[in-house]
Hints:
Blueprint: E1 12-21, E2 28-38, E3 43-47, H1 54-62, E4 69-74, E5 77-78, E6 86-89, H2 101-105, H3 114-127, H4 143-156, E7 161-165, H5 173-190, E8 193-198, H6 201-207, E9 210-215, E10 220-226, H7 238-248
Parallel strand pairs: 3-8, 3-9, 6-7, 7-8
Antiparallel strand pairs: 1-2, 1-4, 4-5, 9-10
Amino acid sequence: MERIALSQQDEVVIQQLRKEFPGDPGPLLALDDINLTIHPGEFLCIVGGSGCGKTTLLRIVAGLERNFAGSVKLGEKNIAGPGLDRGLVFQEHRLFPWLTVEENVGFGLADYRPPERAAQVRRYINLVGLEGFEKSYPHQLSGGMGQRVAIARALASQPKVLLLDEPFGALDALTRIRMQQEVLRIWEAERTTMILVTHDIDEAVYLADRVVVMSPRPGTIKNILRVGLSRPRNRSGYDFVQIRKTIYSEFFDENEIPEEYVI
Length: 263
């Protein structure tokens, strides 16, 4: 099955979003006045400290959080619940342990005819570089391989948007870098709109077209920075480090930024 082309009708548009959670003695305001448009095919990263609401924002776009004020749309459709037009990858791969790699990847494709389903599963297993592991079970895979399967499963239904919630947070440093490279390769091949939540500023600058910086309590958008660097990006290059420094300056005073993050 051919990749479905994205159009301007596939924008994610968030307007005047406000989200409260019940609390004692009163409601906790998690997100306030969030206005953001994510363009079709864009790689957007959201950064911020713990408690800034970035995961809550991602869950709202995924349709997992309701009872919010404002509007969240994918194209012309209001997001009111989960849907196959949005894929979601968590920090833990959350694979079904009793299913093989190919069964996990094909789990959401029940409506496909068997030949199409098999071709789709094979395509995305190949895309994430797991040829030869089709019959393996999750306990036989490394952490990075498990996340590859989770990404393949999320992409197999050909969503318009892939949402990634700290997908590399549980991985060791070397595997994390490899997975960043893999996700970037997959994005370049598929051009699926990707929204990634991360604490890692280096990761955000390496991957993103734009970086959304959030401030906490309540979560608001503090700044949006465009990363105008060609890919592949040199993490030690002057322009890369300057963008990273600019983002750090959103969280720290000039004299508080660690020396290793400044040229």
